[in-house]
Amino acid sequence: MSDTQTEALKAIRDEVWQLGEVPYSGKPDETPLAVIRKQTGVHAVIGEGNHSAKLMCVGEAPGRDEAKLGRPFVGAAGRILNELLTANNIPREDVYITNLIKDRPPGNRDPLPHEIELYAPFLDRQIEIIKPAVIATLGRFSMAYLMEKFGLKEYLLPISKIHGRIFEAQASYGPVKIVTLYHPAVALYNGSTKVQLIEDFKAIKELLDKA
Ligand code: URA
């Protein structure tokens, strides 16, 4: 983990934090997520893990527990993610875990297009800093964003059709594999999705062993 990487990640943290400091006087129901974060006294969730991780997992957006603690995947979905990693002998601390959106959408609603546009460049920078060999997209929002970013838009299908697929892509720093997965939260109410997720993570483990 180099100082340069840590500094670059801190700069992202500071910039996201600053988004909540911009005065806002528009319609209450259009209040930016970062302003809501400041008003409600919770945290932005930038990401955590190994700054030179071979595997980066990208979820959708922080939920209530994550915003309270400022850490990704620490609530119910996080417990599933931990199980999936453990079942495949992937230590969580070896992975870099983040989200497409860095502030919690109220009531865990879907992110809006302008919110994706605002926060996605931070994810782009995280990818450039960490240079993962494998990126696992968790759920349809990070899947759609990253497939488009890496020129895979023509292969984009509903997640039920492409979960567990491995797409080869080219990042600025070299080849990267994009693996499209169900969001772990789906496994909270659907047991067969959990079985599927464990299987799909097995494929990731095989990729990591070869990377
Ligand atoms: N769901 C996500 O997509 N990300 C989190 O950090 C937690 C739940």
Structure description:
The chain has 211 residues and is α/β, with parallel strands linked by helices. The chain has eight helices and six strands. Strands 1-3-2-4-6-5 form a six-stranded mixed beta sheet, sandwiched between helices. The longest helix has 20 residues. It is globular. The structure holds uracil. The site of uracil has 12 residues, from loops.
Task: Provide the descriptors you would attach to this structure in a database record.
211 residues; alpha/beta; six-stranded mixed beta sheet; 8 helices; 6 strands; binds uracil
Report strand order across the widest sheet. 1-3-2-4-6-5
Q: What is the radius of gyration?
A: 16 Å
The portion of residues forming beta strands comes to 5-15%
Distance between the termini: 18 Å
Distinct compounds present? uracil
Q: Give the count of helical stretches.
A: 8
User: What is the element string, with H for helices and E for strands?
Assistant: HHEEHHEHEHHEEH
- Which stretches are low in confidence, meaning pLDDT under 50 for 5 or more residues running? none
Number of strands: 6
For the largest beta-sheet, the strand count, sense and barrel status come to: 6 strands, mixed
> If you average the pLDDT, what whole number results?
96
